[in-house]
Specification:
Chain lengths: ~270, ~150
């Protein structure tokens, strides 16, 4: 009996402690978002595998048909390299989904070359090596983590030398490739939940604002992306309404066209 | 010699004073990030992928900061907030784009950490509100990381 009482006392104590640390204060059920406008940080650009993860839960996806590991041309313009780098990192996440070790290794090498081309090769050498090693051992979770670290290191290195605009182009390249694959998958097997994954109006506005602040990058592909985002915005900014199959198809056409433009010499 | 002793005394005093306030001077958002990652650690074993990227800064007691984040229906998210300041009380809560509380009830706050759990009902923008509710410091570093599965 005594051990039971002691046990009971301990349990009550533990429960009280838990109650205190689990949301001790009352949390407002509703806040006025408009009042936050001056303190809001920039929208965070999701990694492509965040979208792919959600897509996977809607049904089996044949990732192998989306794997792309061709070397492509070498560019000299830094904005073009940055866009391509973001695209290639996204291709890495696709190759991980497809568990294609050969493609992952090719992509690891390609990332290294592009990072060197943009002057941030040193910061990602260990990650590129880790990608290849993990792909050899088929440790997909490690590859995913290293791809994330690669993108983060590249962007940090760019930010350190005040190349924030190039860093944003890396994110944009990744987002465009992710959206191209997302729409391609949803177009093939349409579902309302799949189409809803395209509902990213704030992210689109974020990229539009960033592109507008890059007048010095006077390149055809940048202008094409800028114009294309204007086309895409009404297709995905639908409020509470559903995104129809035609819109998914249209966004896929646009992002496929841009994707081709990013990997192809003018 | 007298002058030398004076200089030595002053330098030593300055060094001692610096050592005493060292944690406050040299503590940074990176330290806060270490705490946030520490909070995330147990969740990695449950299959959550923790993003390398993080947000951070400093806030005074009672101040809030909002981070806008795109979340996808179908994924499950945890947000972990950390601070290196002892006896600070921090919190993190998640609201949808209409300003409605969107988190699960198993969020928690303890010591250097706070966490919020979200299973989005819809794909779209969400607001992650971080707050320093109490702190012995004038400014308190914070860092926010998130993971998904």
């Amino acid at each position: 009996m005594i051990p039971f009482i002691r046990h009971l006392k301990l349990s009550v104590g533990a429960l009280c402690g838990l109650a205190l640390c689990v949301n001790g204060a009352q949390v407002p059920q509703h806040i006025n978002i408009k009042q936050l406008s001056t303190t809001v940080e920039d929208v965070v650009v999701p990694l492509p595998n965040e979208i792919f993860g959600a897509l996977n839960k809607l049904g089996a996806v044949n990732w192998k048909e989306h794997v792309r590991s061709d070397k492509g041309p070498n560019f000299t313009e830094r904005p073009r390299i940055a866009l391509l780098l973001g695209t290639v990192i996204a291709d890495g996440f696709i190759a991980v989904q497809a568990e294609d070790a050969a493609a992952v290794k090719d992509i690891g090498q390609r990332v290294m070359t592009l990072a060197k081309g943009i002057g941030v090769g040193n910061s990602i050498t260990p990650h590129a090596k880790a990608i290849v090693d993990a792909a050899d051992k088929r440790k997909w979770e490690n590859v995913r983590q290293e791809l994330d670290r690669t993108q983060n290191s590249v962007q940090q290195a760019m930010n350190e030398v005040h190349d924030e605009k190039l860093s944003q182009l890396v994110s944009l390249g990744g987002w465009l490739r992710g959206t191209e694959v997302l729409t391609s998958v949803v177009k093939e097997h349409f579902s309302a939940d799949g189409a809803e994954l395209l509902h990213q109006p704030d992210l689109l506005s974020y990229f539009q604002t960033r592109l507008q602040a890059m007048p010095e990058f006077n390149l055809p592909i940048i202008r094409q992306i800028h114009d294309a985002l204007v086309e895409v915005k009404p297709l995905i900014d639908v409020g509470d309404r559903r995104i129809p199959a035609e819109s998914v198809k249209k966004v896929n056409e646009i992002t496929t066209r841009l994707g081709h433009g990013i990997v192809t010499r003018d | 010699m007298n002058l030398f002793a004076k200089v030595l005394f002053r330098t030593s005093s300055l060094l001692l004073a610096l050592m005493a306030v060292q944690p406050a001077i040299f503590a940074s958002v990176d330290d806060a990030q270490s705490f946030a990652l520490q909070a995330a650690e147990p969740y990695v074993k449950q299959g959550f992928q923790v993003r390398e990227d993080y947000w951070g800064g400093d806030l005074g007691s009672g101040e809030k900061k909002a981070v806008r984040q795109q979340l996808f229906k179908g994924n499950e998210y945890w947000f972990w907030l950390g601070t290196e300041v002892d006896r600070a009380k921090v919190s993190v809560h998640v609201y949808d784009s209409d300003g409605k509380l969107a988190e699960e009830s198993d969020g928690w706050e303890k010591g250097h950490f706070a966490a919020a759990h979200v299973i989005p009902k819809a794909t779209g923008s969400y607001f992650i509100i971080v707050s320093v509710e109490e702190s012995p410091e004038e400014r308190t570093h914070w860092a926010l990381v998130y993971g998904f599965r």
